[in-house]
């Protein structure tokens, strides 16, 4: 992915894609002092750009690495990098991290907080799952306690278990993995939040140990506007059997129907299809 044409915004400057490099003694590479955002631009406009820029700043604060830019500056940088690459429909990746400094060790206050923003064309995250429903594995890894990590941060360190979960899922022919949290409650997929339908009502995990996704919040608003009851609550493993429909939400995943989690099967039902269609219309509006 590094050897291609294009431009990447790095620390206030537009650099050639191939030249957007960091030193091997970059703090983030050794100690995961890195936070990021995944966003999508539709028809020339990033969906909820300010919300993503704000979450990036919040993630940085949570990791004790204040990012030296404002929401407005980050928004402008994202628009600039899209324009520099001539893209109107693209995925946008902002990443803030502690760079190389005078010293190398766990403490990082002497290392500069850097920011880079790249963008590229990225289609459906789960391929044709939009129609038949994605197949999910159940991960053996658990989302950690909020006393272990700041779960509200979109922090690189939190993705190690996601990568391991996803590798295990793919080895079994699944497109992703669903993880439980440290208490055994249903948590999220490796890059998306999860929703279930039963008797016309919607159930989704409380965001008390997971990322409270921007797509998740958008979809909850959409459901409530339709008069559908949404229960944000702790969901037990034993409940999976009783749910009729299931879908994932995320910037990359958008609204993706789920057909199977482990041995549990779900139908790609009317509500799932309606929400997927409405979300598509909303982001392009
Ligand atoms: N959970 C995890 C672990 C994620 O990586 C993502 C993607 N950012 C989400 C949930 C969904 O968040 P959003 O809707 O803000 O993209």
From TrEMBL:
Function: Acts on leucine, isoleucine and valine.
Family designation: Belongs to the class-IV pyridoxal-phosphate-dependent aminotransferase family.
Entry keywords, A to Z: Amino-acid biosynthesis, Aminotransferase, Branched-chain amino acid biosynthesis, Pyridoxal phosphate, Transferase
Pfam families: Aminotran_4
Organism: Gemmobacter fulvus
Enzyme Commission (EC) number: 2.6.1.42
Gene3D superfamilies attached to this UniProt entry: 3.30.470.10, D-amino Acid Aminotransferase, subunit A, domain 2
Catalytic activity: L-valine + 2-oxoglutarate = 3-methyl-2-oxobutanoate + L-glutamate; L-isoleucine + 2-oxoglutarate = (S)-3-methyl-2-oxopentanoate + L-glutamate; L-leucine + 2-oxoglutarate = 4-methyl-2-oxopentanoate + L-glutamate
Pathway: Amino-acid biosynthesis; L-isoleucine biosynthesis; L-isoleucine from 2-oxobutanoate: step 4/4; Amino-acid biosynthesis; L-valine biosynthesis; L-valine from pyruvate: step 4/4; Amino-acid biosynthesis; L-leucine biosynthesis; L-leucine from 3-methyl-2-oxobutanoate: step 4/4
Protein's name in the database: Branched-chain-amino-acid aminotransferase
Any one GO biological process: branched-chain amino acid biosynthetic process
GO molecular function, one term: branched-chain-amino-acid transaminase activity
PANTHER family in alphabetical order: AMINO-ACID AMINOTRANSFERASE, AMINODEOXYCHORISMATE LYASE
